[in-house]
Design goal:
The complex is a heterodimer of chains A (219) and B (131). Chain A is mostly helical and 219 residues long. Chain A has a domain of 93 residues. Chain A is 92% helix and 0% strand. Chain A is built from five helices and no strands. In chain A, helix 1 packs antiparallel against helix 4. Chain B has 131 residues and is of the alpha+beta class. Chain B folds into two domains: 59 residues; 68 residues, no CATH class. Chain B is 57% helix and 21% strand. Chain B has five helices and six strands; from the N terminus they run H-E-E-H-H-E-H-E-E-E-H. Chain B has a four-stranded mixed β-sheet with strand order 4-3-5-6. In chain B, strand 5 and strand 6 form a beta hairpin. In chain B, helix 1 crosses helix 3. The longest helix of chain B is centred in the middle third of the chain and has 18 residues. The chains are: A mainly alpha (219), B alpha+beta (131). Chains A and B meet through helix 4 and helix 5 of A and helix 4, strand 5, strand 6 and helix 5 of B.
């Protein structure tokens, strides 16, 4: 930046110098036409006056040229010190900020891509895990349904078996009651009939035989 | 508890003293009671109660109660007495008891043992066998 500015100033100084030289040449030409007679009368100096002659031909006045160059340097220095330098610093700072922003943007882009990849991987893993959980839940529910079905069937069988057993027990009890009642009636009837129909002699005979039976039972 | 054990032991001893050749006799019981009266034991009432219970049990073991709706012949009663004396290995007295509910036949009870040869008993066993 500084080099470019210096080159620019140098390029600008050349026209200024040429302009100053042209003005000087015009002045010198006027003075020369005025002094023609004088120069014609005066013999040119021989030897070391070649440079002065050239400068005269180009219209360069050394003191004016030097003064203008000094002025130009002062102006250039002031411009460089109070205008170019802060502008350059500001430009450099802005350029640095832009570079930093671009770098930050690049980093952010990389990070965003990484985050995007990570998010995609996470989503993929979550989807896989969800599928696994779903499959496991389905399997468990299937097993549970099967188990509950078997339990219900077993319970139904147990209930049916208990009901049949209860029915059978009830039937057996009824049969037993009937048998008991029939036996009781038979015994009661037999006892009544025997008490009424057996004579005392028959009872005596039976009792004696029973006594003999008891007597002979221990032998 | 210790007092009851002593009373029981003493009552059993009195029952043993009341026996004559393994048979409880009235005379022996009278002697035991007379002797016990002379001793004047401190728990005489409880001892006498226990003695009475054991004495009843012993008499029941020595008695065959023959229940029958009609009277049995003397031979039949003698046969029963001989048979049960032999069976229990001690003298058993026979006591008859009328019982018309037996219809016909005999039922003999010695202590807690019952020997039934009656018509009512057979009918009852028949009814039980049906069940």
């Amino acid at each position: 930046m500084k080099a470019a500015f210096i080159i620019l100033l140098f390029a600008l100084s050349l026209p200024l110098g040429l302009f100053a030289a042209e003005d000087l040449h015009a002045d010198s030409h006027i003075s020369a036409s005025a002094d023609v007679e004088h120069t014609e009368s005066v013999e040119p100096t021989e030897g070391g006056g070649v440079i002065s002659e050239l400068a005269g031909n180009f219209g360069i006045s050394w003191p004016t040229l030097i003064a203008q160059m000094v002025n130009f340097c002062i102006v250039a220095f002031v411009l460089y010190k109070f205008a170019v330098k802060p502008i350059s610093a500001t430009l450099d700072e802005r350029q640095q900020k832009i570079a930093d922003g671009l770098q930050y943007a690049e980093e952010m882009k990389v990070q965003l891509a990484a985050a995007e990849r990570e998010r995609a991987e996470k989503i993929k893993e979550a989807a896989v895990a969800a599928q696994a959980i779903l499959a496991e839940s389905r399997e468990q529910s299937k097993e549970m349904i099967e188990q509950k079905t078997q339990e219900a069937a077993a319970q139904a069988e147990a209930i049916i078996r208990k009901a049949s057993e209860a029915t059978e027990l009830e039937r057996q009890k009824m049969l037993s009651d009937v048998r008991q009642e029939v036996a009781r009636l038979v015994v009661a009837t037999s006892a009544t009939v025997l008490s009424r129909d057996l004579s005392d002699a028959e009872k005596q005979t039976f009792s004696d035989s029973a006594a003999k039976e008891l007597s002979s039972a221990g032998n | 508890m210790k007092r009851d054990q002593k009373i029981t032991k003493l009552a059993k001893k009195l029952v043993e003293l009341s026996m004559d050749n393994g048979v409880v006799t009235e005379s022996k019981v009278a002697e035991v009671l007379a002797g016990f009266q002379q001793v004047q034991h401190r728990h005489h009432l409880a001892i006498l109660k226990a003695f009475l219970n054991y004495l009843r049990r012993e008499v029941a073991l020595q008695t065959a109660v023959v229940s029958t709706p009609v009277g049995l012949s003397g031979d039949a009663l003698s046969a029963i007495e001989v048979q049960f004396s032999k069976l229990y290995n001690r003298p058993v007295n026979v006591v008859t008891q009328p019982d018309t509910s037996l219809i016909a036949g005999v039922r003999v009870r010695v202590g807690d043992d019952v020997y039934d040869a009656s018509v009512a008993g057979r009918l009852q066993r028949l009814a039980e066998s049906v069940n």
